[in-house]
Sequence to fold (343 residues):
Amino acid sequence: MTKISPVSTLSAAPVSALQPLVEVENLTVKFVSREATVNAVNGVSFVINPGEVLCIIGESGSGKSVTMRALMRLLPMNKTRIGGHMRVGEHEILKLTDRQLSTIRGSTISMIFQEPMTALDPVYTIGHQIAETVVRHEGCSYADGMKRALELLEFVKVPSAERRLKAFPHELSGGLRQRAMIAMALSCRPSLLLADEPTTALDATVQIQVLVLLRKLQVDMGMSMIFVTHDLGVAAQIADRVAVMYAGRIIESGPVKDVLMNPQHPYTRGMLASSVHSATRGEDIEAIPGSPPDMRRLSSGCAFAPRCAYADDACRAAIPPETVPGPGRTVCCFKAGATALAS
Ligand SMILES: Nc1ncnc2c1ncn2[C@@H]1O[C@H](COP(=O)(O)OP(=O)(O)OP(=O)(O)O)[C@@H](O)[C@H]1O
Ligand code: SF4
Ligand SMILES: [Mg+2]
Fold:
């Protein structure tokens, strides 16, 4: 039986500092049924360096969760067609066998969700669930797994951790449940944490506490993270870099400060305008008129054209290619940076 290391030494498993931890190249995901094909992800590429946080932002239906689930291969395989290339550490995600996949889920890549009950089982105590995960991945004894579970709950700042170990998920508040899920996700020192809107369901104060905690754990463990959110304010707090998704594509990306201070794409500008308005006036406005496209029928031009004040015939005829407006930045818009957009 393996001897377990103390939680004070918990850090992401070592990765090469010489190359990105994550490389996603031209990822496509289609859901195929007899009635229709949903083009959920349409050529997404990004890299994430060790210890870096990438925030994916975008409206509902833009393909954020499908991109995350593709990285974990958590999509219904019978009706999903995945194309492109994904590498995490030394693992080629699309080439892994089911057995290899279940080994790397948790130990290399972990995921936390908006709703903790997606990951927690209502019929087992928190302590048992974390201990079982540790035993499965580290091959230690159940008693050592329990010891690690207690340390982990303390690590994610759950008060009275010893008592909470014996609690069932429904006996905890939303914020504590979220911390328990984070503890479980971190239990096997993942190199990459996927966080899909993990704070959206929490009230504002708890949301900030969980965000601050996540950022601290990520830095302390030297882990990389992909954090999905609708909220640009959250992205500003937690991200090193952002990728803005629209209709299954990344339409703008770059270092978080550069993108938020100087957005180049009309869609990013619209999102920012609406977020600044709601922050200063305390109300939501629809800064971008219209609604996202039907992913079953994407046009051959720029998917944003029907909602874009700057659209012309060229925009409707072809998909704008990716250009590089500055160091570490990308944008897909025929008129990116044009003075017309600045006003
Ligand atoms: N299992 C599925 N079968 C068919 N279509 C799906 C499936 N899962 C997602 N989709 C479709 O794929 C598109 C992208 O969905 P996704 O869940 O990634 O959006 P999202 O950006 O995460 O949105 P939200 O912010 O609401 O969570 C949507 O059109 C959605 O309806
Ligand atoms: S390519 Fe044209 S339609 Fe698309 S965002 Fe840019 S200006 Fe608007
Ligand atoms: Mg989602």
Summary: The longest strand covers residues 37-48. The pocket of adenosine-5'-triphosphate (ligand 1) is lined by residues 31, 38, 40, 58, 60-66, 76, 295 (CB under 6 Å).
